[in-house]
Description:
The chain is α/β, with parallel strands linked by helices. It has helices at residues 41-48, 71-76, 94-100, 110-124, 139-152, 169-184, 196-202, 226-234, 293-300, 322-327, 337-341, 348-353, 370-383, 400-412, 430-446, 457-463, 486-493, and strands at 3-12, 15-25, 29-34, 56-61, 64-66, 79-82, 157-161, 188-192, 205-210, 213-220, 252-262, 268-278, 282-286, 307-312, 315-316, 330-333, 363-364, 367-368, 418-422, 449-453, 466-471, 474-479.
Amino acid sequence: MRVQLRNITKRFGARTVNDGIDLEIRPGEVLALLGENGAGKSTAMKILYGLYQPDAGEILLDGAPVRFASPAEAIARGIGMVHQHFMLVPSFTVAENVALGDRSGKGLNLDDVGRRLTELSERFQLHVEPNALVSDLSVGAQQRVEILRVLYRGARVLIFDEPTAVLSPQEVDQFLSILNRLRADGCAIVLITHKLGDVMRVADRIAVLRDGKLVAGDIARAEATPESLARLMVGRDVPQIPAKAEVPLGAEVLQVQDLACTGSDGLPALRGLSFALRAGEILGVAGIDGNGQAELVEVLAGLRNATGSVQLNGKPVLGWSTAQLLAAGVAHIPQDRHRMGLLMGSSLMENLAVTECDKEPLSRFGFLRGSAIRERARRLLTEWAVRPNDENALAESLSGGNQQKVVLARELSRNPAVILAAQPVRGLDISAIQAVHTELLRQRERGAAILLVSTDLDEILTISDRIAVMHQGAIVGFADPKTTEISLIGQMMAGHAVNGGNTHE
């Protein structure tokens, strides 16, 4: 089935998200769709999938115009979409999840569903047991369930939105092998991703969107390089992260021993974590999302209760409030800048002052000094190249990258001793990612002790000095990013302990 998008235009209010997009999706090919966040990639594919309606343009299937009022209509015509965040019921079996969304009108027998899933699983080597509970499956296996679900409904055009974002290295390899088998079977595949390494491994053709417009629609993989694709995505050369300087390690600043806590669901989230963090060191915490990383940062930031021991420069601080930790030199870059990092309806000036407003020169004798607050905000916005450079602008009016710059400017301008960086580049474009990484390395050279939590293993490997791998709330081992094979880190992410498990090594 050949799909064409012609002059697809979509507006949300005054903002044009897709501006005259022309794309062709061919059977037996993988089309990689690239672009910075907000470039319009997912919107264009959601139009094809029937989630959005275009304001202008048309979709053609094998030359005939079609219009999908809903995803159900798109699925009925052979178009399926696997979203970044899976849409599965954890307490249901694989077969029940597949049957749940079937609107074919035919009577469903779960045994029949299971047999069909087994056939598809064997055909494409998806390795999923129809009677398994989804809650018992790994992230990679859950993704395979989503793929089975669209194949079960007869999809021959498959759209994948950031499919490798939360997978271990081994699961990424498995997924790309699945794409190759689907392609060999004649499926037409669209791969929305920001991981240029995946693109260079599996794409046949590449299309690039920038600011809602198609800037390149038919690049052969052999004609592309990661550098040329990054340049197309941002419209200029992307500066490289400076090489990591050799920094002598200082004393242990943060010591964590036998840390344990429960999650929001009441189940154990951390199980006896122990590690130490030294001045001038970036300790990267790797692991598949949901294995206790968020709870670890929340405990260390004073946002969650725990048992065990946390010492800051030899002083017990477990149970301290966020304000006490901030005053002691701990900075927190939260993974959700909207919910925890910024006051979205407040000005940039207010956001930049919120952690310092009780100190001179921002206040004196208990009274805020408006001129000092404004002057500081202007200085930080200029230093961090925030756009717009307007201290009165509301945080909610900024792009994701500029919002993150505001958080970083506020937290790091204090020259903290310890930096808790949780998913600091999640949702950012290439140039913003480079800026964040460069600043973290600068803070490292200054002597800060940095705990970097990320589900992006490339990020962990790029700037960490040492890696701690978490699985099901425990540290299963430590690794040196310079010498450890990525496959070994992947095994650790899957729960295979090395290096003696929870040690300081």
